[in-house]
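Protocol step 4 of 6: record predicted structures for both targets in the notebook before any analysis. Target 1:
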Amino acid sequence: MNDSQIDELAKLPVGVAAVYHNDWLEPVLCHIDKYNAEGEYTDCPDEVSDDGKTEVLKYLIDSMAGKELDDGVKENVERLLKEGRVSSEIKVKLLSRIRNKQQIDEELLSRYINDVYGECDSAFCVASEAGDIQEWNNILVENIDRHLLDLNIEYRNIVVRSILNERAKNDIYFEDMSIKWTNYMVHHGLI
């Protein structure tokens, strides 16, 4: 477009646009009719899928606990792991253990949790406004991934403990929170 054409863009009426591509000789004017919607617009976001993360998490925790696991569930977890957003290294190790019917150890479970749920800085920011550890824990879990609320408290606490322990390795604040959280949970019989 030349300078005079660019100056004319501001003069175009509402609903008219100039469309131009580098390979085209001239821009093209397009007129778009006004959309007449019936009723008021409301934003309805799609239900956010957890992509099977909670099912995989539950399976891994149960495996770590030595529970006998159903073959149908095992096959579904293998499929979810293959399709899921997990680092290749963790995915390969987990699939190998599952296929060979080996127990999942705490370190591998923790690596999975931190890979899947560990990017949760905003959850910690929201939870920092809590009045006590129990409220902090509830807010944190809800903001890490609301699908975790579908799991029982033991599973949720394993997720929080894993994330806190990982963050405590590099940050004194999280080391302190990990100690406070653990003391609270032990004192109240929650872990």
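Target 2:
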Amino acid sequence: MSNVALSGAAEAATAGDRTVKDRLEAVGRAVGSSRVWRRTWQSKLHIMLVAVDTVVVAAALVATYLVRFGAMADVEVGGSAYLTYDMVAIAVGLLWLLFLAAKDSRRGSIMGAGLEEYRRVLSASFYTFGVVAILSYLLRADVSRAFFIAALPVGTVLLLAGRWVARSVLNRARVSGRALTPTLIVGDETEVRDTLSKLRRQPGAGFVPTAVCLAGSDAHSTAATLSGLPAVRGDELLHYVGERELGAIVVAGGLARQEIRELA
């Protein structure tokens, strides 16, 4: 199953004599610019993750500082007349949070399932300490290796643990019917049925099928429903999206690879 979540802010084109691909491109823009479907749960989740990440990074750096230097303040960095470890810890913390944001580790579409979220957290952590190592070399600052050797694994493990807890909370909410993304599934009938089955078995993924659109060899089907969901015709997609809440489109099959790439 290949999933393509479509979003955008451009004005949706009017329906006419177009291919399924052209209609889907317009629908994707309509979905992205819809004011009806509000990402309230994603906003709340993002705020929660920012708070969790900030607390975790601060706790890891403070704990590492106390273990390495005790209660001493303004411990100077060797080879520098103006740098202290207090300043270094604050700078590292800000840089860490910056990389977590730059890596888009709090993106709603990767929350709740899969390993991508964890990969981005790991990548942000390694980038942070790579940059710190380079800056230490360029500034000729003899930063304690013990400080960073401890801070990196402690902070990374705590960040991953925080994300796991947040994921558990999100999955419980999804199982209870909250924090879900209304989804339209596009493809030929066999692939659509298979995708529906998989999504219904995995509520933690957060995608709730609300309608289907048959494509490929089944594009001219006149069936009104499929697996209990409305079957939307290609020329009715824009009207359907305009009247209902949709957050994503999943391409299950029936379109050429190039068409799917363009839809993304």
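Step 5 preliminary note on target 2. Residues 1-18, 30-38 have pLDDT under 50 and may be disordered. The chain has two domains: 20-38+179-263, 41-174.
Proceed to step 6 after PI sign-off.
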